[in-house]
Amino acid sequence: MSFDLASSYVSDKGYGDRIKVFEQSSATVELAAIAVGTNPGNIAKSLTFMVNEKPVMIVCAGDVKIDNSKYKQQFSTKAKMLTREEVEELIGHAVGGVCPFGIKEGVQVYMDISLKQYDPIYPACGSGNSAVELHEEELVELSQSIGWIDVTKPMNV
Fold this sequence. Notes:
It is a single chain. The protein starts with a helix and ends with a strand. It has helices at about 1-10, 30-35, 70-75, 85-90, 135-145, and strands at about 20, 45-50, 55-60, 65, 110, 120-125, 130, 145-150, 150-155. A hairpin with a 2-residue loop joins strand 2 (about 45-50) and strand 3. The chain is α/β, with parallel strands linked by helices. The strands form 3 sheets. A 5-stranded mixed β-sheet has the order 6-2-3-5-8. It has a two-stranded antiparallel ribbon with strand order 1-7. The chain is globular and about 40 Å long. The protein is built from 5 helices and 9 strands; from the N terminus they run αβαβββααβββαββ.
């Protein structure tokens, strides 16, 4: 169901030919990088949080993690990730296939600046075995992003 929503949304916007469906899982950054044949940084992961009782999605490079102090500065609250159940209920996709396409109304989507160093970028497409090959400006357009933010740091920090 999730894949159908996301792939229909992407196809309706003219990018259906960029959708990739894999035999193997792409549900984690590492698995997606192997499936696509790229580096983990090129995988766009969609992290979901609750901010002021509203769901927020931050799309960032696969090789970074949330920097709690930057997050708090940006959103004036502590980072509180959604549970698996909340992700599906509030965002519309199950963990492993979360992406900014075909999501529920009211989800605020932000792009983290960590994505700017990678091209192309591969977000999931609503399932744990799919991805979409996009360039930065295409991802921003398709996601209906509110804008760019800086809330991450390298994994090894």
